[in-house]
Amino acid sequence: MDINLPDSVDNAIKNLTDEPTKGIGTTLSDAWFLVFGGITQAAQKRRMRYSFELEQYNRELQCSVSNIPPEKLIEPDIQITAQALENSKYCIESKELRKLFVNLISNSMNSDCTNIVHPSFAEIIKQMSPLDARILKSLNPGENFPLVDYVVETVNDHSYETLLSNAFIPSFEEIELVNASASISSLNRLGIVSFDTGSFITNDDLYAPYRKTEFFQKLSAEILRYKPGQKATFHKYLGHFTPLGMNFFEACVK
Q1: Per-residue pLDDT averaged across 114-129, rounded?
Q2: pTM score, whole prediction
């Protein structure tokens, strides 16, 4: 049965077999066809949008592969490539996630990266949100990062109630604290970063912004007004990359 492909997909497959990567590109284009060849869209506008993003995805992938030195270009690992293409079809319209897949696929074809690329990475990216990807990209794998739990503490006995855990302030400002905290928690769940609640960064200046958040200011005012004998405060700790997370960063983010 013949499948009529959108021109963008058909051209993408042809382009992947162009020189100088014709032999290696054949394997990649075969996997591409298996994943994307039969896609149909009920709504024409949606189909046009998806086709545009698919073509953009292919251009980005070609560009990334073409930057690999010829002597380091290897046959793509079909386990990694097929999983990455399959999982990426749900994320094509997110440029942040699409970039992670492009890096993963191209690095799987680079002999310098074979020791850091892992088949689980495609599934990890699939479970990430665009915000997760943005926050991950903003972190430095070689450095710890500050985290806090916002709590209401009873002054007399120092018992406390946690109101927001894993609070994290990203380097970009337009993101709500609660959403950023959910994303850093997601990266922890995926095994990319780990939290050490028994340690904190000695440079207290890194925790100073947590006292200035709207969340903390409102909480402090509410406790002061309505709950005498209690105070709003936070418990300091730190986060760091796991060994898996360091490899993931190198293979998919850097």
Answers
A1: 95
A2: 0.81
